Amino acid sequence: MEVRGVERYQPEKLAAMERNLEEQASGAASYSLDVATAVFRLYQLQPSLARRELVARVLLRALAQLPKQDFRTLIHMLPERLVAEEPVSSVVLLAQHLEACNLQDFWAATGSCRDTISKGGRSSIGHSCVEVGVKVRVKCLCS
What we know:
Oligomer: single chain
Number of helices: 9
Structural class: mainly alpha
C-alpha cells in the first residue's frame, strides 16, 4: 500500500491503512515505514483512535528493521501515555535491551510480549527477533 500526499492525513483512510498494518504485522504484506508513519501521525492527531495491540505489533516489526532507525522514528510519534501502557511498554523494554546488547534480558523479556508476538504471526516476528538478536550480538562483539 502506498500513501502519498494529503491522503495520508485523511481520517477516512485510517481503516484501510490499519488493515494494511495488520497484514504487515502478520507477514502477509511487506513492511512499510510510510504506512506506519501515516497511521501513527493520525494517532498523534486523534489519540483516542490508537489501537494499542496494533501499535505494539507495528513497533515489533520496526524493531526487526534494526540497525535502521524505524523503531525510534515511530516511538517518538506516540503520546507518552500510550508508550507507558501495555503491550507497548513491553516492546519498548525489548528495544532497550537490544540497544544495550543485553540479549539475555531481551530473551527473558520476550515472555511479556508473548501474546503480541503470537498475534503478529509468531514465525514472522519471532524470526525477525532472532535476526535482530544475531545482528546486535555481532555488533556488540565487533565493538
